[in-house]
Amino acid sequence: MGGIFGVVRKHDCVQDLFYGTDYLSHLGTKRGGLAVSGPSRFSWTIHKLESSYFRSKLEPNLPTLQGNIGIGAISDTDAQPLSFTSHLGRFCIASVAGVTNSEELTRKATAANCFFSGASDGKVRPTELIAMLLSAEKTFEDGIRSIHEKMKGSCTFLVMTPDGLYACRDKLGRTPLILGRKADGFAVSSESSAFQNLGYTYMRDLGPGEAVFISPDGCETRIAPGEVMQMCTFLWVYYGYPSSNYEGLNVEAVRYRCGACLAEGDNVTADIVGGIPDSGIGHAVGYAACKGLPYQRPIVKYTPTWPRSFTPQNQEARALVAKMKLIPNRALIEGKDIIFLDDSIVRGTQLRDNARILFDYGAKSVHMRIACPPLIYPCEFLNFSSSRAALELIGLKAILALEGVEGKNIERYADASDAKQAAMVEWICGKLGLTSLKFQKLDDLITAVGLPKEKLCTHCWDGSGWGHY
Amino acid sequence: MGGIFGVVRKHDCVQDLFYGTDYLSHLGTKRGGLAVSGPSRFSWTIHKLESSYFRSKLEPNLPTLQGNIGIGAISDTDAQPLSFTSHLGRFCIASVAGVTNSEELTRKATAANCFFSGASDGKVRPTELIAMLLSAEKTFEDGIRSIHEKMKGSCTFLVMTPDGLYACRDKLGRTPLILGRKADGFAVSSESSAFQNLGYTYMRDLGPGEAVFISPDGCETRIAPGEVMQMCTFLWVYYGYPSSNYEGLNVEAVRYRCGACLAEGDNVTADIVGGIPDSGIGHAVGYAACKGLPYQRPIVKYTPTWPRSFTPQNQEARALVAKMKLIPNRALIEGKDIIFLDDSIVRGTQLRDNARILFDYGAKSVHMRIACPPLIYPCEFLNFSSSRAALELIGLKAILALEGVEGKNIERYADASDAKQAAMVEWICGKLGLTSLKFQKLDDLITAVGLPKEKLCTHCWDGSGWGHY
Amino acid sequence: MGGIFGVVRKHDCVQDLFYGTDYLSHLGTKRGGLAVSGPSRFSWTIHKLESSYFRSKLEPNLPTLQGNIGIGAISDTDAQPLSFTSHLGRFCIASVAGVTNSEELTRKATAANCFFSGASDGKVRPTELIAMLLSAEKTFEDGIRSIHEKMKGSCTFLVMTPDGLYACRDKLGRTPLILGRKADGFAVSSESSAFQNLGYTYMRDLGPGEAVFISPDGCETRIAPGEVMQMCTFLWVYYGYPSSNYEGLNVEAVRYRCGACLAEGDNVTADIVGGIPDSGIGHAVGYAACKGLPYQRPIVKYTPTWPRSFTPQNQEARALVAKMKLIPNRALIEGKDIIFLDDSIVRGTQLRDNARILFDYGAKSVHMRIACPPLIYPCEFLNFSSSRAALELIGLKAILALEGVEGKNIERYADASDAKQAAMVEWICGKLGLTSLKFQKLDDLITAVGLPKEKLCTHCWDGSGWGHY
Amino acid sequence: MGGIFGVVRKHDCVQDLFYGTDYLSHLGTKRGGLAVSGPSRFSWTIHKLESSYFRSKLEPNLPTLQGNIGIGAISDTDAQPLSFTSHLGRFCIASVAGVTNSEELTRKATAANCFFSGASDGKVRPTELIAMLLSAEKTFEDGIRSIHEKMKGSCTFLVMTPDGLYACRDKLGRTPLILGRKADGFAVSSESSAFQNLGYTYMRDLGPGEAVFISPDGCETRIAPGEVMQMCTFLWVYYGYPSSNYEGLNVEAVRYRCGACLAEGDNVTADIVGGIPDSGIGHAVGYAACKGLPYQRPIVKYTPTWPRSFTPQNQEARALVAKMKLIPNRALIEGKDIIFLDDSIVRGTQLRDNARILFDYGAKSVHMRIACPPLIYPCEFLNFSSSRAALELIGLKAILALEGVEGKNIERYADASDAKQAAMVEWICGKLGLTSLKFQKLDDLITAVGLPKEKLCTHCWDGSGWGHY
Q: Which of B51, B90, B113, B138 to mutate to test the interface with D (most CBs of D within 10 A)?
């Protein structure tokens, strides 16, 4: 995923930029950086986040940054923000992007004698592609339109110039970009929760494809928003911070409703309801309240030293962290029937381990409730982590096991009313060693979010969302 | 506070020692260290935890440590563990201690030509005093008895020798020390929650004053436990990790009962129940369940970059962190009557700020419920942080304001049935700008914990606990 | 200045690359970096050298580098080596370059929709310009020819591809590039002294404008050397390492002859001969031997902590370092007539301070002898440090003082037989507080070097060297 | 070896302390530290010097130090300075010491219930022993006398108190301690060369056993110097910095005379004279001048990144550094007869490697001249590095080879006029592959130094120096 933050003030912006970007740390785990436009030059600093976190790594560099315009990025992939010079002048770019046709774009550009920097394997990074497409047009506005037209996947980005910054939301609004203001300036962010403690008040969400130019003197829409929207539903289900709103809909409230939807008509009985930290907690709280069962914390994350952002990149280390950071509480588990909520099941390995641990600690039964339907269509639009690669999705493994052929009858497995889905859920339930397993129905999920289905990308679950190119 | 962890194995103990000590990170914020006894020498590493946390700081040094016996410390005060040589041979010490007569002990020792290391201001650190008192006796056992006799305050400590380690709980058991075992060894810890993910199973809590010698071959009680116990009640209320048990009583379960006790007979009505993260959450969950109101998260801590252990030492930085790390969720606050739980009120400044923020975000009412009685007797036994200095306790400020004299009628203010306490609570409620405020009654707290009152130190609330010297 | 080093081996090249580049540390003070071509990707690491030096900074990153082809750079300016992707494929560039028409080149390229990375002030770095000019042509060879044709100033560079590396010496050979070989591979370096301890034997100097492609299988000249050469004479006088040879002429031997030339016909008498460390020592040794006077060390550099590469970038820090790193030896100074050698006089401030210190330590007389003529034409070809800016040259200040007009009669001041130069030398001698001052004559310098004048750039002294574009 | 530096000023002393201690970096390679006495507390910082050097490591900590009294240490062994508290109050100690009876001292102290800190292997560090012996007496003066009496080996040390500092030279003056002053204070140092650039002027050397108390108001001798002196001759031969004076005798001048003594009567002929950097250069310069041969630099140390202080502790790394940091210059070696000077031969391995390299580079002959006699009695007084362990001295190996028994006829091998020594020198010459080898005669060395023999410790060469306990 990843997150971006921008500030334009009449005074120095570095403090706001630093804390605002830090508030996006849950969106990425690989690189974090800041760039600032000062009197006559840009300055920037970028760090790896793999062994320490954004605030620790960047804080020592703050004195080297100075200026009233700034952009920041938390990235799951490439080093950002990057600085460029072209006939458009000097500019810096930060992006949240998943580009599926980068090879094609690269090939065309290099054929026209363009060259790209910094690609260790020759695969050009999204931020460079954005710079290339911008530089190929007469104005930034034309360049942004060209990006919407030519780049496949999704691309929300910020372009900092010496005079202000362009905030550009993805053509179909797959990822959010939100405007805020305070007395002497403006901010733009992937998460509205980043505004609050910095004194920015929410203005509005940018529309799909909208581009706004923000200068110290004001905000101006340079490219009007489009009609069609395909916002990623997963932001509410998993990625977003509880205090954030997207399209006016609060993340924690959506999760509460997700839990409530699951509780309604769920005839399982239990002693307590818990959530897998942190992803299942919002859902569990809603489930418990709706069901009239006590919400409790049978598993607690050891937050003092395992903050969420420390998800290491290799699988072995990830498994160790997954085990070490959760501490079960036997006093709340032993002899109990427990309903557990989580946001989704990707590969299912950690959930299987958690289930086994719960039984080891004496749970009588473990009923898992998942806030969204089974994932069976790999995302083609955003840059999710590699663990969501097609072959690793437990839903696809179930289909392969049940059908003997990859992806056979996939539409029926996507249909909650079809017996095939029921068989798949039963297969997964068995694999994970659960007492019972239920997934949210897609209609219920959409109801819980509160936007019309046509504005949401639900591709992971029903394979839709392609028609919009 | 602080925490200590020890391991004795037949094989290398460094991994267990590292993760075990890391799991005590919530107990201290200043120094962290490990010491290991290898074939012919001790090795150790100690780091400041103020700008980064234990795991990041210590991990690069692990390759320098090797051995089958080890001790670790997370400290709110001095660098630990320290290594010593005396007629008893080589040994290392880690401690959780608050020594109130250190000047007297230092004076007597230096008069006998002893000298101490490392005290920048001439004030000798507890670990050095322990070494001095041990070295003044013929055997470690005599030394430990001498410490129980001569040292005022509290002192739980580990002594690593080349052959094993002495685990010594404070004379009155004010702080815990818990034994665990696995196939090839033993561990001892301030928190039982540190055992679970490392494969240690709980054996038993050491008794007050008990000293156990642990070698690779077994555990042996060298000094039998005493009869009298004055365990710090605050460990359940605030310090302890939810998954830990002390004296067989689970921390989260105690907090749940604290919340439930508060809910019972509380006739306030509200839309939701929330807890101040992280200290109030366990209590809030119990309150909500007992009251039949939905538990929700109107304030969320930004854990990705503000883990609990990063409490800076200076007041200004602490206020900034307090503000930045909590993100209110307007969607759950606006127009709502909210019951909020917290563990205790020390100075009340952060609670006042939180209350103001909740009203700023549109709360209709903020009803604060506190899991313990008002703090009016400063702790004289443990090493709490300086913010608990006598003059800063809001309870004492209330008494001064109401009586015009410091501490006048303090016994009546300690009595929940006395009108004086009611007046104090009203005064505090007004100062903090709350809609309503209730504190737990001491009897209810003791019931929630589940130990007989005479085994608990309740000094903070009723001034008892002195008679035991 | 700056230095570059490249290796192509049949086996892993990282150790050789690391030490080889480290041996160029005297050539630059700002950035150092390495890039390696591994099985399927490039990897690289670049560090600031301002607070620590190359070896310390880079050593921890070595495990992240792997491959049999590598290039390294020590730079006085920009971060290097950089990686690029274009229609030519993936490549990395390291350069020693001073480009005087970069604005023009940038303007033309951006007009053709090219864009550049990483320029904080919009000024494009030489390495990016090289990448741009290469990418604009069909082959690397065409690109290299284009660079020779279009880039003004000087440019010696290495281009690493997945298959080998192009070693390209500046069109007029202003800076050196030298080939070496060992059993399983080749190296190319700015200094031949970098080869010796790594087991490479000298093959030959590249000719001016020559481009050699080096693969694990052999070296092949792709662009033949040109006829015209204008090698920078200063490399022998100051920059080069004593053990290096350029064009077969040893640096230390040239300095010895410089000193000897100065001694011949110098009728001053003295007790001892010394050199300003480190720049004057080679010259002093030759002077002393020729004159039959004892060479001694009246000033010693404190090398344990002030290695040469730690020349800070700001003037105040530079003055402090200049003072702190040299320790005078009163025992060798007091009451002595001393002849001191140095390589050149730029601004003269440090020499003036050194002279005053020598008299403070009791020197009876200080006779300064300079290994080259007065610098009066600022270098327009290489990237010298800013202290060689036109207005700061003491020679130009002398002319302004003597003529009342900037640069008036400059040709006569360049002529050692003209009374004007004698007046200038006398003026400088007075300003610096010296007993006597003599500069080398240009003819003698050329003789000491041992190349025909037309192959040497002597622009700093006589303003020649322009006609070759 | 190691070095210590102290400052007492009326104003803040940190800058002087930092640079003064840094100027002792050539004396040690393991630990460096500073301690300062501020208004109400001591502050200190200590670092490992193995991977970086003093100035880089300590500079970031300077802002944490404040005060007008300070001491610093460069240590080849233990972390220093250390802080202590005893009946004498607070004090800090830095020392240059080699204690040969530390086990006995430790045993006696622990029998009296003393304990020591920080000894990983139970071996108590000199600085702790000093603290123990001081604390056992009524006054600092009595304690210093006790140290002189009870401690075997050598011990020069500084004791910082809140009011000033005690500067205490070893009982027999084996290592130096030198006083300097400036307008507002005093400094005391192992090397006089540390004073000059900081503006201190030389006052005097402390006498053997002398203790001076230095306060901001003045210096006062508290213990008068003794009559007997046994100063280590090696300080002039190898350890001392060229610009330093000990007992008024300049190090570089002594080395010049050493070289001259060797030249006199040496009938070898050669083209050039060179020195092994840095240890042989001072000697070579004197030899060349006396002999009337040109001094040249056939081997140059790569000082930019291999400063002297980076001598790693393990043998393999040391051998790599020894090879990498010296760069031979073929132009000055090939076809030449060369006389090479060095200070001494310890194990001879590096000299053997250097000789082989010189022949590889084409030397016709390599005549090695050593500034002192053969080392055959291991030092028992100072803390030399482990490479000087008895069994590794090439002199002792020669005796074993020639006699078949360890140490047989050692007195005759110590005698330059005995045929046994001639045989030993011939044996060593063969082992090292030299054309010829000559050692200085002890009488000539003593003459070169310029002190009466009875004031110098010449134990390494003649086994004397024991009678003084």
A: B113
Residue of D62, D302, D332 to mutate, testing the C interface (most C Cβ within 10 Å of its Cβ): D302
Helices (H), B59-116: 102-111
Of B40, B113, B118, the CB nearest to D135: B113
Place of tokens 């310069």: D285
Enter the tokens of residue D354: 């250097």
**Alpha helices in D267-393, H assignment, sequence order:** 281-291, 315-325, 330-333, 349-360
Report CB contact under 8 Å: D53, C303.
Answer: no
**Nearest C-alpha neighbor of D272 from the set D224, D329, D328, D340:** D340
Give pTM, 2 decimals.
Answer: 0.91
**Contact at 8 Å (CB) between B22 and B6?**
no
D195 contact partners, CB below 8 Å, separation of at least 6: D20, D178, D180, D187, D189, D201, D202
Convert the pLDDT of each residue in D165-203 to its tens digit: 999 999 999 999 999 999 999 999 999 999 999 999 999
* Pairing of β B245-246 and β B249-250: antiparallel
Residue with tokens 């006779």: C367
How far does the CA of residue C89 sit from the closest CA of chain A (Å)? Answer: 7
Mutation to test the D interface, candidates C15, C59, C197, C341, most D Cβ within 10 Å: C197
Instruction: Let me know if C51 is exposed, middle or buried by CB neighbors in 10 A (0-12, 13-18, 19+).
Output: middle
- Cα atoms found within 13 Å of the Cα of residue A377, Cβ hemisphere only: 21
Report the gap between the CA of A273 and the closest CA in chain C (Å): 46
Of C41, C115, C131, the CB nearest to A120: C41
Task: Report d(CA D74, CA D77) in Å as an integer.
Answer: 9
Name which of C82, C111, C117 is nearest A87 (Cβ-Cβ): C111
Type of residue at B402: L
Name chain A's partners: 3 or more CB pairs within 8 A.
B, C
Summarize pLDDT for D120-173 with one digit per residue, the tens.
787 899 999 999 999 999 999 999 999 999 999 999 999 999 999 999 999 999
Helix (H), strand (E) counts: chain D: 16, 24
Rounded to whole angstroms, how far apart are CA atoms B167 and B173? 13
**How many angstroms separate the Cα of A422 from the Cα of each of A348, A429, A458?**
17, 10, 20
- Which residues of chain B, if any, have pLDDT below 70? 305-314, 385-390, 466-469
Structure tokens at D266: 């040496």
Cβ of C305: how many Cβ atoms within 10 Å? Answer: 21
Q: Which residues pair with B295 in a beta bridge?
A: B273
Listed in sequence order, the residues at least 6 apart from D369 whose beta carbon sits closer than 8 Å to its beta carbon are D259, D262, D266, D283, D287, D339, D340, D341, D342, D437, D438
Strands B31-37 and D82-86: unpaired
**Which residue matches tokens 């400059």?**
C410
The residue ranges of DSSP E strands in C377-451, in sequence order, are 436-439
Give the pair of three-digit tokens for residue C271: 């007790």
The average pLDDT across C229-247 equals 96
User: What tens digit of pLDDT does each residue of D96-108 get?
Assistant: 999 999 999 999 9
**Three-state DSSP class for A444?**
helix
Tokens 């097609």 locate to A390
Secondary structure class of A209 (helix, strand, coil): coil
pLDDT at D413: 97
